[in-house]
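Fold this sequence, please.
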Amino acid sequence: MDSRPCTAADLTVLTEKWPVPGGVHEAHASNAAHGSSEYLVAWRDGEPLGSAVIRWTGFVGAEGRVAHPDAVEICHLQVRPEHRGRGVGTALIAESERRAEERGRLLLAVKVGQDNPGARRLYERLGYRATGTVDVSEHDWVDDDGRTHHTIERDEILLQDIATE
């Protein structure tokens, strides 16, 4: 498995092999092109397995920005259903951590909702610890039928200081 930043050539393959409504891949790649983030994609034999965003600018929600202003957020971690349970999420987190460490950014954060115990188990197994801080963010998303929805998310922030590993 190879986890790397999404290139323009990758984006073409990614959108063909893993179509997501609403231009999600394109939006993440565009943000990465402006330097505010990196869009990582895990690949095996030319097949996209999953993706994650490293948000260098920290949290979107005010609670996270105030409570943990120096944190880099690893977000939008997605693994295609047919590849779950095979280490893809772990590989994406590890590559995110490696890239953050290269930049001297040693405080990393992930957010997790109460309705996602599987993600919480993964993050805790990888050394992320609950902070008690709940970050609130809003975004629009497009479902498989092309309808746009507005969501307000309340997610707990989990942190790891990779300098203390």
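The beta strands are 2-5, 37-44, 47-55, 72-79, 107-112, 129-142, 148-161. Residues 33 and 39 are 9 Å apart (CA to CA).
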